[in-house]
Design a protein that fits this description.
13% helix; two-stranded antiparallel ribbon; 22 strands
């Protein structure tokens, strides 16, 4: 810079030669103008935070270092943990005494910033939320409430859960009871086709469960007329005569196909006939 070239404050035009100044966006300002134009206002004392002061900020709010205090006990919060409540800054002790929840187990305050567990309106220190059986911290693992206690899943299964009689593993939700034995829904299967029976109609033979289709195919009597299984489980009605069976809709005259249900009939070797067709023979 030559001795003839001016170096003035951009705002008040006073010379900055030999004086302290501040650059903002490539423009120079004297300290007084800079503070008037750009300095943040302190939340504590409402005065500008000058160039020679440390500016402490929190969520777009600013304080002088000496004004950054707990709103209740006035202790300095500089380089200390603090909490905010309704726009007030509080030291952790004041916040805990006035607002923090109490641990359900040890009854002590759960300090702000510390890890805590919450369930149905209750709070615990992380180290106080223990499995009722093994007394180990549950932390973020799954747990199951039982009576007045809380159990980690392995302990609950060992102490309370039924064991599936098929896979021998614990049944934690749902399940099926058959012949006074517990089953997982996915383990309760037809002994024939291995299809799940939960929610389906089924029957049993020799204490084994069967779906209706498998039971009919394996054990049901066959209709003389259509050769398909006859099962009352599906609501079918049937006619029995001389150790032979027919679906009611299949019990018809061999010659004219008229229904013989509730009517007299005649036999001719293995055939059944209505009385009219029988007389013609």
């Amino acid at each position: 810079m030559s001795t003839n070239e001016r170096f003035d404050c951009h705002y008040c035009k006073d010379s900055l030669l030999g004086k302290k100044y501040i650059m903002k966006e490539d423009t120079q300002y004297c300290t007084k103008c800079y503070e008037n134009l750009f300095a943040n206002c302190c939340e504590g004392c409402s005065s500008p935070i000058g160039c020679n002061c440390k500016d402490l900020s929190y969520k777009d709010r600013h304080w002088h270092e000496q004004c950054f205090k707990c709103a209740k006990c006035s202790r300095s919060l500089v380089e200390k943990a603090f909490a905010a409540k309704d726009d007030l800054l509080l030291c952790t002790e004041c916040y805990a005494n006035d607002y923090s929840s109490k641990c359900t187990t040890c009854k002590k305050t759960v300090m702000p910033g510390s890890r805590k567990m919450e369930y149905k309106g209750n709070s615990w220190h992380e180290t106080c939320f223990l499995c009722h059986r093994c007394q180990q911290p549950i932390g973020t693992k799954s747990f199951i409430p039982k009576d007045s206690g809380y159990f980690c899943v392995p302990c609950f299964e060992k102490q309370f859960a039924y064991q599936c009689c098929a896979c021998k593993k614990a049944i934690t939700t749902g399940g099926v009871t058959y012949q006074d034995k517990p089953w997982h829904r996915e383990c309760f299967l037809c002994i024939g086709c291995r299809k799940q029976l939960s929610g389906q109609r089924f029957t049993s033979r020799e204490n084994y469960p069967y779906c209706l289709e498998c039971f009919s195919n394996l054990y049901a009597k066959k209709c003389v007329g259509c050769t398909k299984p006859i099962t009352s489980l599906a609501g079918a009605k049937y006619i029995s005569f001389e150790e032979r069976q027919w679906h009611s809709e299949c019990f018809t005259c061999m010659q004219c196909s008229v229904s013989l249900v509730g009517r007299g009939f005649l036999t001719q070797r293995d055939n059944i006939l209505c009385t009219d067709c029988g007389r013609e023979k």
